[in-house]
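Dear Dr. H.,

I hope your travels went smoothly. While you were away I took the liberty of generating a structure for the chain from your last submission, since the lab meeting agenda had it listed for discussion. I wanted you to have the full record in hand beforehand rather than looking at slides cold. The sequence, exactly as received, is reproduced here:
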Amino acid sequence: MEAFRAHNFKVGFYHSVIDWHHPEFPVDGLHPMRENLAFREAAKNRDIAKYRTYLHGQTRAADPIWAHRHYVVRLLVCGSRLGLVQGQRAEDWDSARLMQMVRELHPNILVNDRLGIGGDLKTPEQYQPAGK
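The corresponding predicted structure, in token form, is as follows:
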């Protein structure tokens, strides 16, 4: 990143607060390995606080940021099963502090609404809003 910045390039990224590959990301109701009992057992002591520290550090390193998604509860349809599953919440990411840090680092930045606490613009996914 420093090589880009040395030439006055901004370093930004499309950032997902969800990182299922990180060794501290909990196996929640939406994790792709949630049905694998051996994986869940091996991952039972994962610590969202450690993951949050990593997430905030990665965010601090970027210039502009576009958050990918936040999730709380989703309707899950799988074969004949239908149910609600719980994922991580804005509190797990400490979204308010994350947003504050981003705005301190980049006062003129536009942030989308994918941290679960609102933002400067709406970015609907999987639907088209009827109006403003």
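Two observations you may find useful: Confidence is low (pLDDT under 50) at residues 72-82. The longest helix spans residues 48-60.

With kind regards,
E. W.
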